[in-house]
Design brief:
Mean pLDDT: 89
Shape: globular
Structural class: alpha+beta
Oligomer: single chain
Number of helices: 2
Helix content: 10-25%
Strand content: over 45%
Radius of gyration: 12 Å
Number of domains: 1
Number of strands: 5
CATH class: Mainly Beta
CATH architecture: Roll
Strand order of the largest sheet: 4-3-2-1-5
Low-confidence stretches: none
Order of helices and strands: HEEEEHE
Largest sheet: 5 strands, antiparallel
CATH topology: SH3 type barrels
Length: 80
């Protein structure tokens, strides 16, 4: 298990700064499967946040928990 360098409130504060921005996400789905998404960080809730994923075929929404970001299963960065 990975030792956390931030606490949950710090993760929430960092994600709050990204609200409304276009972001890139890398999601670890297990067994060496990492899926990358691009989209806009839309909504923030108490324990999850929602990203509107934009693909060529369709537009969908994906929710992730703050603990996934804390553990390193989800990595987010602002797309320039």
């Amino acid at each position: 298990m990975r030792k956390p360098t931030m606490d949950l409130n710090e993760v929430k504060a960092e994600i709050l700064k990204l609200k409304g921005k276009y972001v890139e996400m890398a999601v670890n789905k297990g067994r060496r499967k990492i899926t990358k998404y691009e989209g806009v960080l839309e909504d923030l809730y108490n324990s999850v946040f929602v990203v509107r994923i934009t693909n060529a075929q369709k537009i969908e929404k994906m929710s992730c928990s703050y603990t996934d970001v804390l553990c390193g299963d989800v990595k987010i960065k602002v797309k320039a």
